């Protein structure tokens, strides 16, 4: 049998997120179920669903609180975004890449996170058929577009690309904040060039497989997905997965039972009659024996199982061998039912059940060897039959050696590809480190230059402040000088004006004096001839008036400038 199913790559996200099938052929009205044959296969078993590992209650509660906070942020964000800039999931699925990318660059991070949260709610399917219909509408819009190619998706916004990939694959893990894949990986997942299982991430087709399923099924990975339902999960070291001895493809046990790929077949040891339970692989149509495979799984993994896991595995074995007509298969079926009943009734603990089943497999092996020896000793083998038996054994040995060689070659190719990928990643990281160092040095030089400019500007500011203070003091000094000169000029103007008025008054006085004097002389000459008394009185008044003019001029000057004194 093929070795146990390998563990997925390290770093699988530990979130309690459910995933939706990306099969476009399914519709909301046609769920995958098999309720008619509940004994042989559950309607929707955990192994036939794409599910993330279940987190603990604290993580779930934390997630609910995060959703509540996002819901609270929704109202705040909506008030800050105009109706023209708003983007809905239908817009992302329907509108052109450039239009949505431009809008998303203008939107706040809170709004984009709320948009992703809305798609996560739809993928979780909490509202039943309504959410399922919404999802299939979005998926139909995305898968009907012809402009979503590797060249155009390079120009998308990060959130836009995550939403498109989540809609196309039906996996909400691409929207989770703790998962950050590169843009190239997301584009390859969208174009079915890389496995959509975040814990696998192998290039497709895996191991360069050329079988019909790997070649014709979009997004199928033979390393982690079921050949029948094309889904994956994170279960390893379990009877829930059956591997093909020849092509190394894996199938869910539930799917194999439901599609009747587990059935009776001719024994490779006895060669006569249907005596063993076999698994027929849908990928290569070859058969693999199941009893030895179940024995290997229990011998390698049962000691590490707890009671609940052990009961689940016994239930799987019971359903595998439910229709067995082989005595060993029937004994195993009865033994599993007996051990489950004893464990549930508290008659045996998990360790005792584990020891009992392992002991049962050893007894089956001893009984098979005894039966084979008795059959060989009870009859003589003809030479031709002996040669045919030897040829069959040789052919079987050669076939197994070829299988091992092919498996080793595939492992070697995979290891070489992983080594080359690691070398490329190491070279990329080294280049990134070099670029970061150069960028850091550049930033350091820029910071030093900015510090020099800041110091120079501070010095200039101090110098200009000093000059401003000096200019202010000089202005105050000039203002004081101007005020002093203004007072002095006013005094000089007043003094000159009064002197001018005094000179004018003296001139007028002198003029009148000369005129009076001339008149007196003429009057004296007339008096001797007998002048008029009225004229004498008039001349006397004029004389008095003339001698009183300087005093009037002085009093007028003092009235005009009461605060000044005549020079």
UniProtKB/TrEMBL annotation:
Q: What is this protein called?
A: OBERON-like protein
- Residues annotated as domain Zinc finger PHD-type: 225-285
Q: Where is the composition biased (Low complexity)?
A: 16-28
Give any single GO term for biological process. Answer: maintenance of shoot apical meristem identity
Question: What species was this sequence derived from?
Answer: Glycine max
Q: By its UniProt entry, which InterPro entries does this protein fall under?
A: OBE1-like_PHD, OBERON, Oberon-like_PHD, Oberon_CC, Znf_PHD
Extract the Pfam families matched here.
Oberon_cc (PF16312), PHD_Oberon (PF07227)
Listed Basic and acidic residues bias regions: 29-42, 557-567
Describe the task this protein carries out. Probable transcription factor.
